[in-house]
Amino acid sequence: MQNTTYGRTMLLLASCAAFAVFSNTAHAQAVDGPTTVCITAQAAQQPQTLVVVPSGTVFATTPGTEKPAEHTPTALAIVTTETITLTHMQPCMVADASSVVSHTRHWLRQKIKPHTGVSLHAVGEVSGNGVDTDMQDEDASFRDLVHSGALSATINHTVQDPVFLQESDADLPDMGEGVDPAASRDAASDLPSQRHPQAR
């Protein structure tokens, strides 16, 4: 009788230990990627929600929309380097990403560290030597999510391996100041994104 009780106790303890190891492993995998991409609760409320966030999606902070933490630059940007799928049941998912450097857009950090309370919002996708904020190659539902601010990203640990964009002021969206970025974007559409700054 004592052997049976002892055996059951040992089995229970072994099961608990195995569960603890599994939980720690699952938790480590859950935060393994440098970023976490999410859709808002409102956008994810429909049970049939399925959002494919393609590799190359750019997330950024912009001056005036975020209260920067101490020693945080006024604008940061990252680009996803893998495609992920968000659903009603899984509205957030970790993703690999690189930092984005654009002197034109004042994204200057090659290494982006986590900062409490700072999130980045989808602004477009890498195209040619810059960022395409129109995203005409994506379906309308995804563009609507991006333009409504429903897609965001937070930094889990340092994002690096920077992508350097060689865009000019003409590549920025027309903010009503009479600059038409279309001609410059079309001319640059066949240029690859630059992983290293060009020699001058």
TrEMBL record:
Residues 169-200 are annotated as: Disordered. Residues 1-28 form the signal peptide. Keywords: Signal. Residues 191-200 have a biased composition (Polar residues). This is Uncharacterized protein. It comes from Acetobacter ghanensis.
